[in-house]
Amino acid sequence: MSWVRALKETGRSGLTVERRRLEPLVAVRAAAGLAIMMSFGLWAFGPVTAASSAFGAFQAAMATFQRSWRPRPELALASGATLAVSTFLGYVTISRLPLFLALLAVWTFLAGLAWAAGPTTGLIAASNVAIMLITVTLPTSVAQAAGHGLMMILGGLVQAALIVVFPVRRWGAQRDALADALAAEADYARRLRYDPIAGFDPEPLMAARDAARLTARQARTRPAELRGSRLVAERIRPVLASLADPAMGVPGEGRARDRVRELLAAAATVLDASASAIRHGKQVEVPPAALAALRTPDTGAILQGPPARAATRLATLLQDVVETAGGSHADGPRPHPDGTHPHTRSLNRPSLLGLVPVTLRAMRDELDRNSPITRHALRITAVAVAGYLAGAALPFGHGYWAPLTAVMIMRPDFSQTYSRAVARFGGTLIGIALATGIVRVADPGTYLSGALAVLSAGLLYLLMRTGQMAAQACIAAYVVFLLGMGGEAWTQTVPERLLLTLVGGLLAMLAYAVYPAWETPRLRTRLADWLAAAGGYGAAVLDRYADPARPADEVRGVLLASRGARAAWHTAVARAGDEPVRHRGLSRTAAEEAEDAVAHLARVAMLLEAHLPDRDAPPVPAAVRFAEALRTATERGARAVRERRVPHWDEAREALAAWDAEAAPGEARGQGADAFVRRGAHLLLKALDELSEALDTQVPAMSVRGDGGSGEPRPAPPPEPRRRQP
Questions:
Q1: How far apart are CA 190 and CA 194, in angstroms?
Q2: Residues whose CB falls within 8 Å of the CB of residue 229, separated by 6 or more in sequence, listed in order
Q3: What is residue 708's predicted lDDT score, i.e. its pLDDT?
Q4: Is residue 422 within 8 Å of 431, Cβ to Cβ?
Q5: Contact assessment for residue 269 and residue 571, using Cβ atoms and an 8 Å cutoff
Q6: In whole angstroms, what is the distance from residue 339 CA to residue 620 CA?
Q7: Where are the alpha helices (DSSP H) in 16-166?
Q8: Model pTM?
Q9: Which residues pair with 213 in a beta bridge?
Q10: Which of 301, 274, 308, 306 is nearest to 290 (CA)?
Q11: How distant, in Å, are the alpha carbons of 150, 161, 470, 478 from that of 73?
């Protein structure tokens, strides 16, 4: 993508206003907390202290709107406390420019590194640095600076108290995450009726798992319907895929396929009903026709082998979903026919203080010059210091607008930085124009300016999720009214804010162009990581067939690793698509075909996982050799992908050939105990060969033998179009 096109696309993204579900009660609550602190500050200390306390309450409320599963009171307290510390230290050093610049550099660098702990931590840290640049100019003595800091902490306490006293849709975010996961599986079941190998994006399941991580306080108060449903939903997805996939034994048309379509439709209805019940906190109401379809006794006469087992398991899992979604099983789902029991313990989320070592450890792990987070930290530090010096040198006054703008818009990736720069300037222009017009017409005094500032903040909280431009317009109006409450005329804030905002935005954009952290050159690394994780997932599943008594957690762990690697790949591809960089070793076509191949590999592993044996089932000893060969081959293949070589799968091919040669006559005809697993092994090898084809753009497509290289003739597997998003 050229620079002109990249700037055009990111600019359009920044100016887009999206339709989102608004939360007016939450916005009113946050604005009320701001109004309480502003009124108290005006009554007790005057306009200057009121402005400082308003910034504390404003930032505390902003923190609670971030996309985080952590309790909102904790976010408000953390934001208010860290802003208070930043303001006090900033004021103590502001009189000595070199010392303040050193503090600004250290604080900004740490804020940049904080993105290693997640976007919520990074956003709160960056906002604290930006607001500190304003609040350090308000006190006139060290004692006043300490008082302003205490008022900021009090602002955080007020916002946290309002959240506790006036909860709005308690556990709403967790309910939505779990309901979205069930609804996504319902949609998946419907698509499988017409496309038996349809893809599935596991992102809703990943979000539901993240939402299920709880602090100790949350674990004690979690509603019963949120316990266990996610774990059952995780088990349903591979069962749905196995039931529909032709490779598992159900022909494309006929009586068996019709029965499968009926079961999938019933499953979709049950999942949708459970999702709605969880989202709204009501009892599950499943249409009787869907329940009757799942309980039809002639399923065993129509379906045979793996499809019959999948149908039985699906009915049991759906019954558990209904019972847990309705709160019938407060302790989670019952054991399943395979002898395993889903874990119902809470996933631990560290407390607010426990998060400190976790964040520091994540920041330390990112201290590498090639890390995008470290490059972002260095970039934002240089821009903040340069912006502060430039603002001080320009004859406008209030030079902090330039570094404030840069800190607020800069992100670790190109597209967000540039889109936010455009949105901030456009929104600032609109917000200042509206606020200035109101000031000129109404000439508000101290109290009316404060009321207008609260109104602007309330609109910000209401419209925050609709897009950056709307949010930036509200922030601009808020600052104009708030500073007007402190006695500054609009003629002193409008021109300088516009010009210095433009300067800060240009500095941020120039910094990314000079010292970028492009995702495009790292695409091969992301692909290699996903390949190794998917290969490990397939190997762990095969190990369970070789030794059914192995712990079930082994498969679960590698599955989560595979999902994480897949998410990292898709994030990298999305970011690379917006970058003005030519591909380096991986073209767009090769990337798409390689993605399909690795997705196919993960899908086959998922189909095998759907039929994991009971603990007392007879083992398949030959599977362990192929599992080890698969693990070794994918690790070496990942290294080849990173080094821009075409991977080869000799170890896996030889192990599968030996397995075919050792098969008993009945098993060779697909009638033995290990025939199903061996069939999956052939499909795994086929997916690996597809990856080699995708990466080898200089030779014709490879011919994949149905016997996996064994020399013994075998029927070719049915054609399976490759799909994205397994």
A1: 8
A2: 178, 182, 274, 278, 321, 324, 325
A3: 35
A4: no
A5: no
A6: 18
A7: 24-44, 47-64, 72-94, 97-113, 119-135, 142-165
A8: 0.86
A9: 347
A10: 274
A11: 18, 7, 26, 23
Matching residue, tokens 């997805």: 237
How far is the CA of 421 from the CAs of 286, 289, 392, 462, 596, in angstroms? 49, 54, 21, 22, 35
Closest CA to 409 of 419, 396, 395, 398: 419
**Residue 528: strand, helix, or coil:** helix
Q: What residues contact 643, with CB distance under 8 A and at least 6 apart?
A: none
- Helix, strand, or coil here: 347? strand
- CA angle at residue 361 from 122 to 531, to 5 degrees? 85
Rg of the chain (C-alpha set): 29
Q: Are 162 and 64 in contact (CB under 8 A)?
A: no
114 neighbors 107 (Cβ within 8 angstroms): no
Residue 386 CA neighbour count, 13 Å, CB half: 15
Buried b (16+ CB within 10 A) or exposed e, 142-162: eebbbbbbebbbbbbbbbbeb
How high is the pLDDT of residue 444? 84
**576 to each of 116, 414, 517, 566, how far by Cα in Å?**
20, 9, 11, 15
- Residue 299 has a pLDDT of 67
Task: Rounding to the nearest 10 degrees, give the CA dihedral for residues 169, 171, 172, 178.
Answer: -160
Residue 19 is predicted with a pLDDT of 78
Q: How many angstroms separate the CA atoms of 193 and 195, rounded?
A: 6
Question: Tokens for 437?
Answer: 């017009």
**Dist. CA 32–CA 457, nearest whole Å:** 10
CA distances from 483 to 94, 133, 147, 316 (A): 20, 14, 19, 63
Distances (CA, A) of 6 to 350, 578, 582, 696: 40, 6, 12, 29
Eight-state DSSP code of residue 204: H
- Residue (of 555, 408, 400, 543) closest to 59 by Cα position: 408
**Is the separation of the CB atoms in 374 and 368 below 8 Å?**
yes
Rounded Cα gap, residues 720 and 704, in angstroms: 13
pLDDT beneath 70, residues of the chain: 1, 297-300, 327-346, 486-494, 584, 664-674, 697-726
Which positions ≥6 away from 269 have C-beta within 8 Å?
Answer: 186, 286, 287, 289, 290
Shortest CA distance to 179 belongs to which of 272, 317, 268?
272
Contact (Cβ atoms closer than 8 angstroms) between residue 612 and residue 555: yes
Cβ atoms < 10 Å from Cβ of 42: 19
Cα(565)–Cα(531) distance, rounded to whole angstroms?
Answer: 8
What pLDDT does residue 664 have?
Answer: 60
pLDDT at 493: 60
For the chain, list the domains and their CATH numbers: 3-169+373-514 (no CATH), 172-221+223-345 (no CATH), 520-695 (1.20.58)
Residue 672 CA to residue 623 CA, distance in Å, equals: 14
Handedness of CA 59, 122, 563, 464 (dihedral sign): positive
Q: Which helix (H) or strand (E) holds 214?
A: strand 213-214
Kindly report the number of other CB atoms within 10 A of residue 140's CB atom: 10
pLDDT of the residue at 489: 60
For residues 538 and 606, what is the distance between their CA atoms, to the nearest angstrom? 8
Identify which of 67, 59, 68 has the alpha carbon closest to the alpha carbon of residue 30. 59
Among 445, 450, 435, which residue's Cα sits nearest to residue 36? 450
Show the 3-state SS of 92-135: HHHCCHHHHHHHHHHHHHHHHHHHHHCHHHHHHHHHHHHHHHHH
| Residues found in the chain | 726
CA distance 121 to 557: 26
In whole angstroms, give the CA distance from residue 324 to residue 181: 15
State the pLDDT at residue 137. 83
The answer to whether 713 and 723 are in contact (CB under 8 A) is no
Position 487 scores a pLDDT of 64
In angstroms, the CA 63 to CA 125 distance is 10
